[in-house]
């Protein structure tokens, strides 16, 4: 009876780890998609600015919408690229001490500081959602002649923060694997 119990526990643990691994791969994939989308938005922003320069200096016709559109695209780029940057460890940090740490100590530091990351992301999701919801309910528009609605650009804040939260959880799980001395499940 004891032997069959342990076999069942190992089978359950293996299934659970397989689920966690699949979930981590899905989240990594979402971060890849958001990073790819962010890179295309940079191109859109670049095209918008180029279009405005061409219209202004070649045809002497300035466009009302281009400055606002390029600002929206550029802002969206940075918000959506957060999870991608976390996946590839591209966020800014003070490396003077961190780079000298062993992989295990780096994982320990990141595990401890993840508390602050999750607190920040939680506030960003909460306040970002309030910010976007209010813009939607009040039907806010910008003050320009183009006057697009503000809620879509404001909604990017909680969406980007949620993607960052998911990638932060994946990073925390990977750090825990390092701390306990186990390889990440395949």
Instruction: Compute the number of strand runs.
Output: 0
How many DSSP H or I helices? 5
Query: Low-confidence runs (pLDDT<50, min 5 residues)?
Result: none
Question: Kindly state the mean pLDDT as a whole number?
Answer: 90
Oligomer: single chain
Taking the alpha carbons of the first and last residues, their distance comes to 30 Å
Radius of gyration: 22 Å
Percent of residues in beta strands: under 5%
- H/E topology pattern: HHHHH
Q: Which percent bin holds the helix content?
A: over 70%
The general outline is elongated
Q: How many domains make up the coordinates?
A: 1
The description of the largest β-sheet is: none
Query: Which structural category do the helix and sheet elements fall into?
Result: mainly alpha
Structure commentary:
The protein has 186 residues and is mostly helical. The chain has one domain (2-179). It has helices at 2-57, 66-87, 95-98, 103-137, 151-179. Helix 1 (2-57) packs antiparallel against helix 5 (151-179), helix 2 packs parallel to helix 5 and helix 4 packs antiparallel against helix 5. The longest helix has 56 residues, at 2-57. The radius of gyration is 22 Å and the shape is elongated. The two termini are 30 Å apart.
């Amino acid at each position: 009876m004891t032997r069959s119990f342990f076999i069942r526990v190992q089978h359950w643990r293996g299934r659970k780890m397989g689920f966690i691994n699949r979930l981590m791969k899905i989240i990594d994939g979402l971060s890849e998609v958001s990073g790819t989308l962010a890179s295309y938005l940079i191109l859109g922003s670049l095209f918008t600015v180029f279009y405005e320069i061409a219209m202004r200096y070649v045809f002497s016709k300035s466009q009302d919408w281009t400055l606002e559109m390029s600002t929206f695209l550029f802002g969206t780029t940075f918000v959506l690229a957060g999870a991608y940057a976390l996946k590839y460890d591209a966020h800014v940090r003070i490396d003077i001490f961190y780079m000298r740490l062993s992989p295990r100590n780096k994982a320990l530091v990141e595990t401890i500081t993840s508390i602050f990351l999750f607190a920040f992301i939680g506030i960003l999701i909460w306040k970002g959602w309030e910010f976007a919801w209010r813009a939607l309910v009040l039907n806010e528009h910008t003050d320009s002649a183009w006057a697009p609605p503000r809620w879509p650009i404001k909604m990017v804040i909680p969406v980007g923060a949620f993607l960052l939260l998911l990638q932060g959880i994946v990073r925390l799980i990977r750090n825990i694997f390092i701390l306990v001395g186990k390889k990440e499940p395949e």
